[in-house]
Amino acid sequence: MSRLLAPRNRFNLIAGFVGLVAFFVIPNVTDTFQTFEWAQVAAYAAAIIGLNVLTGYSGQISLGNGAFMAVGSYTTALMTTRLGVPYPVTIPIGALLAFVIGILVGIPALRLRGIYLALATFALALTVTPVLNNFDKFTGGHVGISLKPIHPAFGLPLSNEQWLYFFDWSLVLIVFVPAWLLIRSRTGRAWMAIRDSETAAVANGISLAYYKTLAFGVSAACAGVAGSLLVINIQYAQPDAFSLNLSLQLLIGVVIGGLAYVWGPILGASLAVWLPFFAERALGAKPDIGFGLFLIAVVFFAPNGLAGLIQRVTLRLHRPEGGVVAIPGVMEATPAEADQITT
What we know:
Blueprint: H1 2-29, H2 32-57, H3 65-83, H4 87-109, H5 114-134, H6 136-139, E1 145-146, H7 160-184, H8 186-196, H9 198-203, H10 208-234, E2 236-237, H11 244-257, H12 264-283, H13 287-301, H14 305-317, H15 335-342
Antiparallel strand pairs: 1-2
């Protein structure tokens, strides 16, 4: 069993080392636009981490996480412009508000599953933009809210884009580590049990109401952080930015990256930001064609997402004696659980 788990551990270590190196190298080898785009990747990564918890680990489909991003964005925008609160202070407040709203949404969602839950969150995504536009005296409506650019702190010799890059990715790390620890804990195991079989989970004493609602809250909190980062990046909050397209983009990102994989959100966010740009450069006025073809290719050749494809290739290269390549469900199981699966 240790030989089977070793490739996974080596893969995570290598991926973590590559990510750490890239974290410091990217802002030094990219131009202003590219550095800004990588900061945008960080904002999307924070949201997709939360959606991965909700959909990938607890098995609840959501098409409305863009609405939770709107909560974080407008919390930051309103507190900064009207109260003069510094950006870093507004981010945890926006995450907390999004968490509370996520819990409130998750409670009635307990009665829904599968496509019906997706339709309910779909309605949430459709209503957020009209609601924000309707309360224009508070939110600015179609005019939106303009924010001041963020500047390097502590006198660091960085451009605004470089500081934005380090600021965003540092917060993504703060989101990523607790989410990863939560997934590896008893709570994460309960989520995976619910995802695999609600009947079996209840039979083993797992509270569906508690854990499913908690997953909604955690996912919404991550989206709230992402919304704050997004509005800090573009220095502008406007209701149309949180339409259904944003929620669909997040869902596409989590599927492309790989549901229930640790590094899936990073890969998914990178593609969600960069793929439309490269498709536009390659196909000119028809970027949606290239984007659609890529999605079809991913679904066909990598049904578990890019992280799943990379994991599968890694395990094949380190095939243990006996020819065993991978065991479904072992990816995020503890060694003790994996031993129980194989016996």
